[in-house]
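Pinned message: reference record for Lipoprotein, putative
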Amino acid sequence: MKYIVHKLLIIWIVFTLQACGTGAKTNHTNGNDTIAIDKHAHHKHSKAESGATKPEKKKTLSPRRMAMSDVGENHIHIDYGAPSVRNRVIWGGLVAYDKVWASGAHSATSITFAKDVVVNGKQIKAGKYAFFTIPGKDMWTLIINKNHVQHLADDYQEKEDIIRVKVKPTMLESPQEQLKYEVITTDKGEAVVSLSWEKMKVSFTVKND
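Predicted structure (tokens):
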């Protein structure tokens, strides 16, 4: 009798341990599933939040622009920031008279010649240069300068000028809202480089050397 009771007790203990082990395993599996679901939901939520709070790219008021043309085998290329009038007083206001002006916005305006050129009778070697001006009420000074890597005319030095040309500005028939450069090739195999803004225009001629 004792033997039978002892055997039944062992069977009951084994059965109880197996039942506990199965329950623990089931709970562990469910726990993993819950964590996986929570992570997935958090990932989706994070993506939604990221998209909702992403700032919109602002439109710049003075975008970079280019003007270019081929003159025979030569190539002339101008890179500049193009501000707009936006109901402001430009000459003698935003742009001071009788002071060096970057002739554009942000970085200095640059002009590149693929081959040697002649401007106002002076030879200029192929390369990349800065283009500055000194606006005046009656006459402008156009400047080609060695240092094109600068903000506006912050680091301008007259000793780095390659050439200065005096020109008389002309009045436009209709206002030019956004500053604009043009490089126009003529029948003579030359190029006329011009800057137009508000009601004013200045230009100079470039010849191949």
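Pinned by admin. Summary line: Helices lie at 2-53.
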